[in-house]
Amino acid sequence: MSDVELKNISFKPGMELKVTGIPKPDVGRFMIKVGHSRENIALHFEPRFNHSGEQHVIVLNSRKDEHWHEEVRDYHFPFRQGQEFEVTIIFADDKFYINQHNGHVVQFPNRLGDKQYDYILIEQATVSGIDIK
Question: Are 56 and 114 in contact (CB under 8 A)?
């Protein structure tokens, strides 16, 4: 599967989302987004290989009513173009824990503060597996 958009799902605290895939060839980044829509995103997870002048950094953010908030950067970068990745996002009440395939965990606050999200978007990656439990 190429880019994947899931709507009307139920992602609540205590649940986890596991995404397995391969970044598309010749892209500067790929993204995993969790929220309510493209305009309201609680978690924007974006590993950048080479995008906007940045290399090998993970950018995290949130978006409400089409306005982006302050970006957070993490420099533990286990991703390689053309190689499979696995990312597991655990939703706690007040934050997301993003477990990467090298064992590194990134935390990001639940800035929107909602107790359920129903939209997941994975872009610029060929997705081989999605598991929500």
Answer: no
